[in-house]
Amino acid sequence: MPTLDVPGASIYYEVHGEGPWLVLAHGAGGNHLTWHNQVPRFAGRYRCLIYAHRGWGLSRCEGAPDPARFADDLTALLDHVGAERAALVGQSMGGWAVYGCALQNPDRLSHLVLTSTLAGLTDDQMLERILELHDPSAPFDGQKALAPDFPRREPARTFLMAQIAGLNPPLEPSFLQALIGLRYPAEPEKLRMPILYLAGGHDQLIPLDLQKRAQAKLPASELAVVEESGHSIYFECPGDFNQILDGFLSKGNG
Length: 254
What we know:
By secondary structure, the chain is an alpha/beta fold. It has one domain (3-249): 3-Layer(aba) Sandwich (Rossmann fold), CATH 3.40.50. The chain has helices at residues 39-42, 70-81, 93-104, 124-133, 150-153, 155-165, 173-181, 208-216, 233-236, 238-249, and strands spanning 3-6, 9-16, 21-25, 47-51, 60-61, 86-91, 109-115, 195-200, 222-226. Strands 1, 2, 3, 4, 5, 6, 7, 8 and 9 form a nine-stranded mixed beta sheet that branches. β3, α1 (39-42) and β4 (47-51) form a beta-alpha-beta unit.
């Protein structure tokens, strides 16, 4: 089982395919299995790196996971596999990891994709809005990661998503509070690579208007919206997600 030991944790990862590096960082309800709709599509042309954040899935963590360590973990993983240059895709919680990693390693990124995330690009008003919508101390409802009507339309796939999430430890309120409160500077002048912000029109966790405010902090970035999707575009609308990502990756590599 391929793992990387980092301070306070052991990170599980897999590499599939050959070609330029494509790194996929999952959200709080996922792990390395999250990307089952993406790896078969992209592994024929890209070297896909999938992994589980510290404390998720098959990765291990000493004590409670600290989201502030995610960017360091990802940088260490890139070093470990020899990915000198890579496209990074971060979904929800994974957006904090890839954006933090981009700030650490701007010259190593060919592309940056932030999907269904705030990625730490927040201000006081945005945080107030998130806290109005969600009580971080309340139990996490995994179905909020889907469009409101998705569980009724797709009960089998809803069950699959819950099974994948079930491989993770329970989400502690203290972790969610730390994640939401973790801020990164915009620094658009530092990030010269193409940047895509991909959002769902029916996101119940991070409403579209908040994602647009985060995206606006990176003026050179593109915005793509999958109107019928909720928070988990990669899972709910994988065809749209893959097509948009494929087209974006075909653009110049900065």
